[in-house]
Every structure is written in C-alpha cells, then in structure tokens.
Amino acid sequence: MSLRIIGTGWITPVGRTPAEAISRVKDHLPATPDQPEGYETPVLPIDPAFIQDVSGIPRLRRSSVISHFAVAAARDAMAGISLSEDELANLPLLFLAGDGSVVYTRRFYQDIVTRGAGSGSPLLFPETVYNAPASHVAASLGLRDEALTFVGDGAAALAALDSARALLLARKEKRCLMVAAQELDRINASAYLRWGLTRGLLPAEGAGALLLESSSTEKGIVFTHGGYSFGSNSDAASKLVRILQSIPSEYAPDACISSMATSNVALMERKAIREVFPKITFLSSGPFFGESLAASAMQQVILAHHLVASGDYRRVLVASAGYHGQVCATVLA
Questions:
Q1: Are the CB atoms for 256 and 273 separated by under 8 Å?
Q2: Tell me, what's the pLDDT at 109?
Q3: Are 230 and 321 contacting, i.e. CB atoms less than 8 angstroms apart?
Q4: pLDDT grade, residue 200 (50/70/90)?
Q5: Are 181 and 207 in contact (CB under 8 A)?
Q6: Is CATH 3.40.50.12780 the classification given to domain 221-332?
Q7: What is the pLDDT of residues 132-163, one digit of tens each?
Q8: What are phi and psi of 129, to 5 degrees?
Q9: How do residues 245-259 score in pLDDT, each as one tens digit?
Q10: Strands 281-284 and 228-229: what pairing?
Q11: Could you tell me the residue ranges of all domains in the chain?
Q12: Which residues are CB-neighbours of 162 under 8 A, at least 6 positions away?
C-alpha cells in the first residue's frame, strides 16, 4: 500500500503557495535571514503577511503563532477536495511538533519567575502543551476523530508517515491529515546556536501539511519506515544504510532532497546515501527552508511530491538523522 497525496499546504520562509516556493528553490533564491531584537543568531522567520487569512479567526486570536502556521497549512491541504461534514468528522489528524509553543511557554514561566508562583496566566497555559495546535486545526476544520501528536525532529516526522500508513491499514476510512509546525523564539534559537542543533543551518519556522489517502497504485509515498534509534554518527550511518537497503529495487530513488548542511551528521547522511545509491542527485533545501525540525522535513516531502508530479524526477528520497537520535527515510514516486 502506498500513501497517495491528495492535498498539500506549507508555510515556508520563501513563500506559501507551491508556485512561489518552488520557483525560489529552482531559481536558487534563498530565504532572507533576519535577526529580531533579543536574538543571538540570524533566523528564517515567516512573513506575517503569509498567514493574515487565519490570524483573524476568533479561536486563534489568543493562540501562539505555531497554531496559525498549522491551521493555514492544513486549510491549504484541504482546499482542493470537498468533504462532507461526516467525512471531516471521521478524518484522523496526526500533528508533528518540534518545540511546540515556545513563545507562550517562555511567557508563562517568565511571569512565574518575575512575579511569583501564582502569576502564571490561565490564558497562556493551554497554549503551552504540545497538542494545542492539533486542537486548533481540528476545531478549524471540523475534525472529531483521533488527533495524535508526535514530538520530535525531522526523522520523527518521516517515521510518522509509517504510523500514518499503519493507521490507514487498520481503519475503514482511508484518509488522514498530517500537519507539522514550528515557531521561533529567542530562547530556542539561542539553544540551537549554543548546542549546534541546526547542523550549520539557520533556525527556521513554518509548517507543512499533507492530506493522505491509502492507494494500491505505486504512486505517492511508496516507501515508509519506522526508523531506528542511534547512539553515534557511525551507528547512525549503519542504521541509515540498513533502511536504504530495504527500499525495493523498483523504488530506487534518482534524487534526494537534502539540507546539504556541513555538519558531521549531515555529511554522514549523504555518504550513507551515496553508498547505497551511487548515482543519486542531491537537491538542497537548507537555504530555503532552514532547520525547523519536523516542519522542514515535511516541507522536504512536499517539495519531493511536486518535483515528481512535475516530471523533474521519477523517484525522490527524503532522509534524516535527527538530533533526538533517530534516523529514518521515505521515498516518493
């Protein structure tokens, strides 16, 4: 069984519409870095104009911007298909969070630190939990089925595709919505800088969404994997090679979307991929999407989908070794 992509949506540093973002990638026009006040490092933020259409939704007026990103991407993914109220109610949601609502979390605990234990705002607290954006997406679209939240990096997002496949195999309804989102704050941007978590890329924010349908055809997401944990770069390399060697020969990729970062982990990824697929072409996404953990991995999957659909490549690999210690890969055809 493959996962057919019947709708996509993304909020990226280089645009919201597919035409805008993909043209920036193909024309090698990278995102423009900015360094907001209080930040220790340049970042790739989202232009507020990209999400103006959802910012006025009453439910979102007091929510953190990560929920705005998630709802905007989810609405775009659903825009091309007409579902009844009952079909929407039975549509499961898989939400992928990297850091969650960092802005409101910092504000909530900052109030407690500066003004005392009783000063944490009850308006802020509901937005600090990881599944807050999922609840906003579900309420915005009228979804009343399962709403699952996964927390992790890029590899976790790819592994969640395997979870989506298992979910649809087990259900009568054969569609699901997957959304990943990330927001920036000075606190997580500083953490990435000090701990080297972005692997040489700029911290970024944004979202990606996929409306998926199970299919018996060999098109769409044709290979998924649950991923492996690793404890060192050499261990990650051997585990990634094992995953890549399990890809059926008929799905062997001719291109790979990679961050093309310069860190040891990123170099290991490309070496392992080249070991299994010596003639593969690497396409860089880092200058356009930056590092937004699950969100940028989902954006890579969406980019791969568009490149396959446009005939640029027959099969595209997306792989990731995340800083949480997990490695995973998927193939689109």
A1: yes
A2: 87
A3: yes
A4: confident
A5: yes
A6: no
A7: 999 999 999 999 999 999 998 899 899 999 99
A8: -85, 150
A9: 999 999 999 999 988
A10: unpaired
A11: 2-215, 221-332
A12: 224, 225, 226, 227, 328
